[in-house]
């Protein structure tokens, strides 16, 4: 069951903190989830200490942590500090969607609509190429958020709004213009049954979108073995050569599998990077042999649940998931990805 009460959220935060001590290599995603539960429980000060702890320890995602810290600080009276963090993130211009979404929605929540619109627009300029019709899953919410803020500002539709409509239409029957109509809240006070039924339909559409997001708490993840780990794995467990004939084929199979999943409409895809010691520890915990191919998808799911997945496809200009150091579009994101040579 999902936590429902403040006490439930506190208990879940404590569980996550205990897990973080057991898995120090995963402490960052676990602490972020614990902080989120503490915010939901109303203990924003404790949540702030976790964000500070992550920033001080050298987080892997400093912009996201600072964005979350800014949102949290603003909610409990530290507006000036929150604004300073937001300004720093905007100056840094990260090329990942999450920090932009957090600060844009924070500004929107505090009626800073022009600044929020600027954040959404700047983020999309960094992450999408004009004319792109394929929008990565983690970037779609930026398009939707920008559409919402533009409706609140009374701005006319532009090309990004049209793209947002297309993205949204794949999952809902109610158009974005209806969902984001600033006047629709007035319908809640209407005594006209037709207006009330229309509003219920809109709310159901919104609820469906939230349920869809909640039903996928972590990505559908594909397991990636870097070259050194791959060689060590097959040296220790040669039986797995049936699953992994060569590293070249392994990398091509990952990209091919992800593209196939995307083609079937599967959203929120990711890549998790494996290590032999971690895999052996997981096998021991499952009382199974690391040589068992049945264990591999379970291991991938476990890594994803612990927050180890990198979103696929990578953001515009981001490095390829394979570890080659090249950008994704110059590596496995190219047109011949299914047969591309091993580069990571």
Structure notes:
It is a single chain. With 344 residues, the chain is mostly helical. The chain has two domains: 6-214, Tetratricopeptide repeat domain (Serine Threonine Protein Phosphatase 5, Tetratricopeptide repeat, Alpha Horseshoe), CATH 1.25.40; 220-339, no CATH class. Helices cover 59% and strands 4% of the residues. The protein has helices at 6-22, 27-41, 44-56, 62-75, 79-92, 97-109, 113-127, 137-153, 159-169, 176-179, 193-214, 227-236, 247-263, 276-285, 295-305; strands spanning 220-224, 269-273, 310-312. A three-stranded mixed beta sheet has the order 1-2-3, with helices on both faces. Helix 7 (113-127) runs antiparallel to helix 8. The longest helix has 22 residues, at 193-214. 33% of the residues are buried.
């Amino acid at each position: 069951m999902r936590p429902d009460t403040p006490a439930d959220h506190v208990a879940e935060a404590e569980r996550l903190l205990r897990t973080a001590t057991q898995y120090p290599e995963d402490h960052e995603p676990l602490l972020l989830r614990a902080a989120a539960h503490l915010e939901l429980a109303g203990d924003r000060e404790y949540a702030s200490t976790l964000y500070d702890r992550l920033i001080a320890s050298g987080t892997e995602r400093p912009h996201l942590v600072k964005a979350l810290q800014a949102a949290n600080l603003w909610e409990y009276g530290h507006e000036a500090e929150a604004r300073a963090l937001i300004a720093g993130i905007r100056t840094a211009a990260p090329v990942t969607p999450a920090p932009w979404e957090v600060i844009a929605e924070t500004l929107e929540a505090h009626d800073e609509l022009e600044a929020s619109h600027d954040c959404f627009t700047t983020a999309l300029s960094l992450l999408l190429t004009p004319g792109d019709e394929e929008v990565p899953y983690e970037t779609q919410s930026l398009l939707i958020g920008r559409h919402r803020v533009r409706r609140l500002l009374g701005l006319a539709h532009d090309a990004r709004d049209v793209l947002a409509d297309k993205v949204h239409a794949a999952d809902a029957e109610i158009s974005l213009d209806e969902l984001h109509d600033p006047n629709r809240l007035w319908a809640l006070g209407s005594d006209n049954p037709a207006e009330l039924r229309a509003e219920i339909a809109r709310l159901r559409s919104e609820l469906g979108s939230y349920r869809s997001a909640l039903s996928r708490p972590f990505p559908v993840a594909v397991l990636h073995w870097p070259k050194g780990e791959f060689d060590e794995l097959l040296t220790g467990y040669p039986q797995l050569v049936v699953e992994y004939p060569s590293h070249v084929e392994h990398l091509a199979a990952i990209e091919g599998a992800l593209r196939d999943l995307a083609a079937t409409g599967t959203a929120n895809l990711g890549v998790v990077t494996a290590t032999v010691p971690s895999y052996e520890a997981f096998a021991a915990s499952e009382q199974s042999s690391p040589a068992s191919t049945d264990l591999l998808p379970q291991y991938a799911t476990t890594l994803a649940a612990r927050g180890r997945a990198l979103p696929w496809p990578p953001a515009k200009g981001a490095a390829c998931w394979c570890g080659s150091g090249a950008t994704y579009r110059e590596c496995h994101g190219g047109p011949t990805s299914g047969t591309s040579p091993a580069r990571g």
